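Human:
If only I could read backbone structure tokens as easily as an amino acid sequence. I am handing you a single protein, as its sequence and its fold in token form. I hope you can help me see how the letters and the tokens relate. Thank you; the sequence and its tokens follow:
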Amino acid sequence: MIIVTGASRGIGLAISNRLVESGEEVLGISRNSVSTKFDSKPVDVTDFKSIKNLSDEIRLSGKNVTAVINVAGIASMNLALMANPLTSVNLVNVNFLGTVYSCQAFAPLLVRNGGGSIINFSTIAASLNLEGESIYAATKAAVENYSKTFAKELSKFGVRVNCIAPGPIQTDLLRGVTEDQINRIVRAQIIAKKFEKDDVVDLVEILMNPKAKSLTGQVFHVGGVR
């Protein structure tokens, strides 16, 4: 079984659908259960008790978990001095703590299974220090740092932990971002083009593959960063 958070839309949905088409069993997690091609659970990643209860349920079912993909996240464009405190709290809770809680709850299932892959999601904004995205980028930078350390802690159990940091991908997270802002980000990539959700999904499949056994503790930028 492969667990995907943020599976109801955007990149999370694209990942889940591709994996199902490849014959994988997928459990999608999102705040609201949706009618999909895969099993889904309405669980809020910021609620550790609910995430842990789901982990216990999977463990008791005897199903083997081979990968956990943490896509759930929110974005907000705010100048640092004008950021609403509640917005800041939500960004930290969903982007950073949501990832931490998922890792804490589901990593033991991978250890129990003898190894596997955890893929967390960051953003190109964490590397580019983009104006108006200081808090959002900081939460994702925290995810990157956490993932690198977590990779060291889990390496002896055969569990690999990596991050994917996409540039502008056409999802709901781009609402409110102007075309000029998107073009400036694209020009900061080594491959200066807009990528699609499928490009991210391709990278997910590579990192999940057991042949990628040497890859852990890394941040992969879709398109590269100058």
Summary: The helical segments are 10-21, 48-61, 85-112, 125-128, 134-154, 179-187, 197-208. Residues 85-112 form the longest helix (28 residues).
